Amino acid sequence: MTKSPTTRRGRASDSEPKLTDVARHVILPEGIVSTGWPPVRKRLADMGATFDRWQNDLGRCFLAKRESGLYASGIDGINMSIPRQAGKTFVVGRIAFALCSLTPGLLGLWTAHRTRTADETFREMQGIAALPEVDPYIDGVRAANGQQEIRFNNGSRILFGARESGFGRGFSKVALLIFDEAQILGLKALEDMVPSTNAAANPLIFKIGTPPRPVDPGEAFGQARKEALAGELRDGMYVEFSADRNGDPEDREQWRKANPSYPKRVNEAAMLRMKRHLGPESFRREGLGVWDETGIGSRAISEVDWESASVREAPSDGVRSLAVAFSKDGERQAVAGALKHDDGFHVELVGAHSGPTDLTIASLADWLAERWSSTSMIAICGKAASASLEQELLDRKVPRRMVHVMTTAEYFAACQWMIDGTEDGSVTHPAADAGDALEESVACTDKAFRGKDGSWGWAATTELGDETPLEAVSAALWAARTSKRVPGRKARAFS
Prior knowledge:
Structural class: alpha/beta
Number of helices: 16
């Protein structure tokens, strides 16, 4: 059943399509000799679930086994890239119910990145549990926030929660681990949760999502896809449903290629509604399943180091510095602060702006002028508007000694100090969710070498990426490390 990445559909339209007819990629692990699907399929029938042929094929592949009796995808997991509204919650959720009802004491975790998504999935699963054909297998449902679970008569449980709220840590003997929204699944979350399956006899791990945006921390999902397409995913499974990369997003045939549930289970109105609400780029990724050619942008600061440097509370006091970074074209700017304290340095992004610099430079100067007296230095990097901002600050009676336009060498040093500080633990930053401007900047910014001597600065590695937030905190760190001034007032806030 292994399918070449380039092989495409070939069945007649009047026949029930199988998985290899509707999926772009079906890549299976080696050594499959059997599958645990038959008893699960029977239990699903008892529960009133009717699957299409391609869905049955998915189930057969999910539960494929080697001669040892262990799941063939039990190490690298089941990885599925599938557009919105294609029926992944129905398929995976129903299979999870069947497995729980057949295996006494099975513990399953269903985790999404966002609380909203986790809540929506739980409500959908709650509805399944209430069906007349399913209810006899159910012991109870707990709907309390943060403690959502479905209990089965045989002692099995499925718990639901959001990774952004810390759900999933501290469990053991987890036999079924489902990572929903895998496009926002960082390596740190994976490291935190996967060990929970080590004590289970025959665990299964699912990673299910849509193609990640360039700024999403989707390293785990993207790496699984990369390995699968390179033929290196030997102990796991990869399935992808997607339209043609250069296909017309208005073309209904492309919709059929991307979504195996269209038009049988998902009608045209639903697809149109999704298209109009998501916008062109998001619809391409989330509605049609098309991965960016460049995939996930490279980064210089590893996700593990960046996550390790995050703190929920900033130090209580210290000496602060401020910094402004301008992009080369002057269309983007970011403001950051750094706090020098007894144990090291703490950096924060104050704000980021995209648009003509001359529209904001006066208000930026006003903001900085109100705060210079409690600051050790205001550092500025980026040639586009550095001189203009410096003059605006001087016009507002900010002392010249307080304003420092960084040299190129100083900027290079700031970048190096930033990466060194996150590696050795001397620099911290606020913990933040995906979507935060600094998080997005770090996720897609890498070193860009600019001289024969190996000197380098920050540069975004994706078309929509923005390096200025990372440049701003790096410049603020440089100011905190080099300034000898101690202002009369100490403060922790950068607002």
